[in-house]
Design a protein that fits this description.
Shape of chain B: globular
Distance between the termini of chain B: 33 Å
Radius of gyration of chain A: 15 Å
Oligomer: heterodimer
Number of strands of chain A: 5
Helix content of chain A: 25-40%
Shape of chain A: globular
Helix content of chain B: 40-55%
Number of strands of chain B: 13
């Protein structure tokens, strides 16, 4: 999802609701990783008194966990991150921080067990 | 001794907190009089926070007036004098302790002076811009003891007509905790991925409300220069709301893979970063006040810290790419690093509060002391 300063908490809840990934990865207009907001971050924000119309600047984690595109087996790396941190969605970025693709643990699992 | 501390804002709390703790430990009776921003919910209601931490708040006074310009402050001045005179009519103290340069401190000092109480002023003699600078030096006319952070501030007080015997150099008490805190090690910061490499740069840039254009120019040049360097940069968010988020967006959009951005970092982690970085760059006062304690170079950008007395660790630099790059090379050079390591912090050595308390304890308060005369 592309970051814009007009995005609000409501926009992210809507996005997470349609994508079913519990996390929203944000890129800037040039496709670089801008930050990540998880469902938990949104719940915490609401618990702390923020409104649905609050801009997301204060909710974004600008230091998210990512995988470098040079890594030999990004999927394996993603599974490791899932076991260690419970991360379900992780961006793969190149050396300029551009997002190459996004690995979803849910998709890996469903491919594995559906086949 | 019975001591009254006047608290109006968060900044002042940094100055008086270590002294209050020390005075209590030494068996003195301490009271904190809270007014202005310190009692307002939208500024975090500091009076309540410190009460919950066990500090002795004796009264909360609504004295702030809604309004965007200095006339709101002028009216608020009147409310402070009203509340302060009622309070001091009914309560006696050995010392009234004020700090800094805010208008409510000046208002309280005038009332305390009319009540003929001994007044001690912390962070006296420094230069600050606009109305704050005038307040600070007006407070000096009423104070019986001036606590100066360094020789520069002390000299300014003496030259403005204050008796040299009443001017005491103690260092800055808000820096005392730099020496007493145990900081997380670099190893720990790496493990918690607060930093991504052993060598890194610390960058802190605040927008200046009076200089919007300059701030915008400054941050875009700084972001550009730092995004082209090989060393990772740890950015700390700005504290000003409107400009802060603009700056934040620009920084985040230009982060390198190993860079980090923190909008909010606890003080211990921040100090650990400062103690382990290659140098600090930006326009935070931390580079001037705190970096010398850790022997770190500070590249100071633009006019924000113009009036602050600085040591040899500070490299002043304009909003200009070539000038920033030149300063970075200097900060990274072995000679300059060695020079910074040798040099002592002009703002004190961690014992400022102890020195201030000793001064309060040993100064005899008699009519001769309370009768102030300007020296020429």
């Amino acid at each position: 999802m592309q970051y814009h300063d007009s995005l609000t908490i409501a926009d992210l809840i809507r996005h997470i609701g349609t994508e079913h990934e519990r996390t929203c990865i944000l890129e800037d207009s040039s496709g670089k990783l801008y930050g990540v907001v998880s469902q938990g971050d949104l719940l915490k924000a609401i618990w702390n008194g923020h409104e649905l119309i609050t801009p997301i600047d204060k909710v974004i984690n600008p230091n998210p966990i990512f995988i470098r595109s040079e890594v030999a087996d990004p999927e394996k790396e993603a599974l490791k991150l899932f076991t260690k941190h419970g991360i379900l969605l992780v961006p793969v970025i190149d050396k300029t921080r551009k997002i190459q693709r996004v690995i979803s643990i849910r998709k890996i699992m469903s491919e594995k067990y559906d086949s | 001794m019975k001591l009254l501390f006047v608290l109006g804002s968060r900044g002042e709390w940094g100055y008086i907190r270590p002294l209050i703790r020390l005075a209590q430990e030494s068996g003195h009776e301490v009271e904190i009089w809270c007014a202005n921003m310190s009692v307002l919910g939208r500024f975090g209601k500091l009076s309540e926070v410190i009460t919950n931490e066990g500090y002795p708040v004796v009264g909360e006074f609504y004295t702030a007036i809604e309004g965007d310009d200095n006339m709101a402050l002028a009216k608020s001045f009147g409310l402070v004098t009203l509340s302060a005179s009622d309070w001091l009519m009914n309560n006696k103290y050995d010392w009234v302790i004020v700090s800094g340069d805010r208008v409510e401190q000046l208002a309280f000092v005038i009332v305390a002076s009319l009540r003929n109480l001994a007044i001690c002023h912390i962070q006296a003699g420094e230069r600050s811009g606009n109305i704050d600078g005038k307040n600070r030096h007006a407070i000096a006319r009423y104070a019986h003891i001036h606590i100066a952070a360094n020789e520069d501030a002390a000299e300014r007080l003496i030259r403005s007509g204050e008796d040299a015997d009443r001017v005491k150099i103690t260092g800055a008490p808000q820096l005392d905790d730099l020496w007493t805190q145990t900081l997380p090690s670099l190893h720990e910061l790496l493990e918690r991925t607060v930093v991504t490499a052993e060598r890194f740069i610390l960058a802190v840039f605040h927008g200046v409300t009076e200089d919007l254009k300059g701030s915008e120019l400054g941050i875009s040049i700084l972001v550009k220069v730092l995004s082209e360097l090989d060393l990772p940069v740890i950015w700390i968010g700005s504290n000003n709301d409107t400009l802060g988020s603009q700056i934040e967006r620009q920084v985040i959009s230009n982060l390198k893979v190993n860079d980090r951005f923190y909008s909010n970092l606890n003080r211990l982690d921040y100090l650990a970063l400062l103690s382990s970085c290659e140098f600090i760059i930006g326009n935070s006062s931390s580079g001037i006040l705190e970096a010398p304690t850790f022997g770190k170079p500070a590249i100071n950008l633009g006019p924000r810290q113009m009036d602050r007395y600085r040591g040899v660790n500070v490299i002043d630099c304009e909003y200009n790419e070539a000038s920033i790059l030149h300063s970075i090379n200097k900060a990274l050079s072995d000679e300059f690093k060695a020079e910074c390591k040798k040099f002592e912090n002009p703002y004190g050595h961690g014992d400022s509060s102890a020195k201030i308390l000793k001064i309060l304890e040993t100064t005899p308060i008699n009519s001769k002391f309370l009768m102030k005369q300007i020296t020429y």
